[in-house]
Design goal:
Helix content is about 40%, strand content about 25%. The protein is of the alpha/beta class. A 5-stranded mixed beta sheet has the order 1-2-3-4-5, with helices on both faces. A 5-stranded mixed beta sheet has the order 7-6-8-12-10, sandwiched between helices. Strands 9-11 form a two-stranded antiparallel ribbon. Strand 6, helix 4 and strand 7 form a beta-alpha-beta unit. Helix 1 packs antiparallel against helix 2, helix 4 crosses helix 7 and helix 5 packs parallel to helix 6. The relative contact order is 0.15.
């Protein structure tokens, strides 16, 4: 990885977001708009990566999964339009574009996320590994603010919110949820309904660059560029809150 990879992730996420804003401004049937947005952003990102990083593999939500990526040294993991439902609603801003780079540590070894960007076009912002927001050093005072899925909030989080206590904030895109944590608008993001690597790769790359904690809800590491891109769950929060949240999750999930 070079500094250029950070810049490229930022540039591509921002440019794709701008194109999506133009498409959205033209209006039209929401269902047609959603499909057109997915296609437009995917085609732009994959074409740019093919031209500017021709030796790298790409895993995109909207593309065919080329299994050659499993042996590749560098894989771009992209979600061309995270929060497609929200994109189709002209009044919502909680949708995003995700661009992340995964790199293998060495021949036959595992790898890690090394660069990433989350564009929030309707909010006029790009968060990236070029200059990620820094995690707060002190734990927040209760009630904590936990951001959850607008449509699939895990039931155990309701129990946690009563025990801690905490306020639950509903948002659409995973990128928008992690951004809320990075910007201090929420204290944690917890999800256990299942999603895919492209939903979290870029947000996690940016969060880690800022010193935030990002793991599975049992505390085990998040892994990327696996044969099965399905991811069961995630926790993103400042390190000062990680221990308390992991313990609260453990107590609730073991009791149910």
């Amino acid at each position: 990885m070079t500094a250029d990879d950070h810049a490229l992730a930022h540039e591509l996420a921002e440019e794709a977001g701008g194109r999506l804003l133009e498409l959205r401004a033209a209006g039209g049937d929401p269902g047609v708009l959603r499909k057109a947005g997915d296609r437009l952003s995917h085609e732009f990102l994959t074409a740019e990566l093919a031209a500017r990083r021709p030796g790298d593999a790409v895993l995109s939500e909207e593309g065919i999964d080329d299994r050659a990526r499993l042996a590749a040294g560098r894989v771009w993991i992209v979600d061309p339009l995270d929060g497609t439902r929200e994109f189709g609603d002209a009044g919502r801003t909680d949708w995003a574009v995700h661009v992340a780079l995964w790199e293998r540590a060495g021949p036959g070894e595992s790898g890690t996320l090394t660069a990433g960007a989350v564009a929030l076009p309707a909010q006029g912002q790009v968060l990236s590994t070029l200059g990620a927001p820094r995690a707060p050093s002190a734990a927040a005072s209760p009630p904590l603010r936990i951001v959850v899925s607008r449509t699939r909030a895990p039931r155990f989080v309701q129990k946690i919110s009563e025990d801690l206590p905490a306020e639950l904030i509903e948002l659409g895109s995973a990128g928008a949820k992690v951004a809320a944590v990075l910007r201090g608008e929420a204290d944690a993001y917890v999800h256990a309904g299942g999603f895919y690597e492209w939903d979290t790769a870029a947000p996690v790359a940016v969060a880690r660059a800022g010193g935030f904690h990002a793991s599975r809800i049992d505390g085990t590491p998040l892994a990327y560029n696996r044969a099965d891109p399905l991811m069961p769950d995630i926790l993103v929060c400042p390190p000062a809150l990680a221990g308390a949240l992991l313990e609260a999750i453990r107590e609730v999930t073991h009791a149910t």
